[in-house]
Amino acid sequence: MRCLIYAKSSDTQWVKDSFPGLEPYLLKIVNKPLLEYYLDLASLMKIHQVRIASDTSVKEIEKYFGTGSKWGVDISYTLSRPEDNLKSVYLKNLSFCKDTDLIILNGFFFVEYDRNRDACSEVFKNRDSCIELGKRLIFIPQGAALSDMHSDDLDGLLVPREFQDNVSYYKLSMDILINNNKKYVLPGYSNEENAFYGFNFIFPHSCSINKPIMIGSNSRFLEHTTIGPNTIIGDNVIIDQNTDVSDSIILDNTYVGADLEIKQKIFYHNQIISGLSGERIQIQDNMIISQVEQGIMASFFNIFVQRMFSLVMILVQLVPWIILGLPYSLLFRSKRVLYLLDKRGTTIRLLCPEKMRDHLFGRFLLRFCLDKFEGLFLSVIGKLYLVGNHLFPDSAPNRKLTRDLSAYKPGIFSLVDSIVGVEKGYDEFYELEYINNCSTRDNIKILFKSIYNRLIHGK
Amino acid sequence: MNLNYYSKNSVGVLEIGGRLDAYSAPELKSYFDSISSNTTFYIFDLKECEFIDSTGLGTIVACLKSASQNGGDIRLAQLQDKPRMVFDITRAYKIFHIFDDLDAALASYESGFDSF
């Protein structure tokens, strides 16, 4: 059996309006993109080949799902014209659709199923005629044509559920979180009823968390916050101090300000949507709600300040480098290792402080940060930051680590350099901490602390 | 680039193989101009086409324009993953009918595809 998903754009305008910049079929329902539920259903039915046809771009979808190996299915992608109807899409994908049983998931809807019921996986077994459920879910047995369909409720095992506005989206999300969270494979770690936690979320002891709740990865709650009940927090969310959130959805990469009481709302970047009426307002004041910038590092001001500091450091270190550093780097070429410059695995060979520590002369140079001199030029031309993520040596574990980070913009100096007594093996923690909290002011602090640590502690 | 033309059921099928880039695109245009008197309905079979750049895509669009002016059409069959990305980012998929099967593309002319 195969599955054709027709991700048409005609019924997704409300998603584009409410959640600008988001690919509608990647809209998260309880922290999981809609299309992922489709793929879960395909997996449940032991379908191994899925084709996603879209009348807009499949770029974002393809970027997220890739070949589908993570879900145990082979995904192929195709494009159709916006005016194509289902029959046209079927014909355009005839090679994929013929010679096998086929399920078509037609457009933007949610399909209710229960992964714990075996009958769900065999609902189409031994059926020899075309079946449609509300024109959304269509079964075509091998050899049959896309016609002569008859409606069938399939004993309620699969139920297409429409959600065509913010209110129905809110209701659907809450319904799954509160009443039906066992029916689906939901993201996050769960060792207690009605609670799902992602990776690396940070909360102080003064924070109160109430179930049912779902918290995404890399989220951070500050002092005296109350989160839940009936709350869905996405990935990379920051909730500032003294804020209460209940019966609400905070979508990915959103900052929620301090001293707020949020109830029955959907937050997305700088948009607040009422879960009850669907009304939507856009907030211009970044103190209340805003998009979490995955890189202050990428801001113009930050880059400008960093380059200026790099130039100053070059001027200060130029003479010592020519007299001491240059001869050392020429004599001890083995003290260089490859470092990862970005997530794609681009590398550069630079002096390695760990190796330089083996030698008295090397330790002396380290005190004056002369190992950083070559990197300063890279900072000026924009290949490296002066202060950024830790510059990891090229190795398989480090490649994985940098890929998994939400942002990796390495700097000559990093948060780890500014801390004395860093716990080994917690690289990811420090990097996430930096990514979530860095600002230009913090970068300057990190720079001076790192230089001080080198000079005084020889770190 | 390899070009092979044949006619099936009054539809001209042009197989395009290899790379369709700035270097080879003029060859496609002049070849298409030379066959355009045969018929007005075409299928470009891209099964063996491994790369299309913006110039190549521009040439296919020019061929489509030329066919349309004569009341015809060009439909694409068996578009591979890498060239598909070019159609995706340039949104060229909005002006072409793209089929994963050559027979289905041929059938679309016979059955009056637009009436679907």
Q: Provide the CATH topology of the largest domain in chain A.
A: Spore Coat Polysaccharide Biosynthesis Protein SpsA, Chain A
**What is the string of helix and strand elements of chain B?**
EEHEEHEHEH
Give the oligomer, counting copies of the same chain as homo and different chains as hetero. heterodimer
Low-confidence stretches of chain A: none
- Estimate the global geometry of chain A from the Cα principal axes: elongated
SS strand fraction of chain B: 25-35%
- Low-pLDDT parts of chain B are none
Description of the structure:
The complex is a heterodimer of chains A (459) and B (116). By secondary structure, chain A is α/β, with parallel strands linked by helices. Chain A has three domains: 2-164, Spore Coat Polysaccharide Biosynthesis Protein SpsA, Chain A, CATH 3.90.550; 167-291, UDP N-Acetylglucosamine Acyltransferase, domain 1; 296-457, no CATH class. Chain A contains 15 helices and 29 strands. Chain A has an eight-stranded mixed β-sheet with strand order 10-11-13-16-19-22-23-24. In chain A, strands 3-2-1-4-7-6-8 form a seven-stranded mixed β-sheet, sandwiched between helices. Chain A has a four-stranded parallel β-sheet with strand order 12-15-18-21, with no helix packed on it. In chain A, a hairpin with a 3-residue loop joins β6 (131-133) and β7. The model of chain A has no long low-confidence stretch (mean pLDDT 88). Chain B is 40% helix and 28% strand. In chain B, α1 packs parallel to α2 (54-69). At the A-B interface, β3, α4 and α5 of A face α3, β6 and α4 of B.
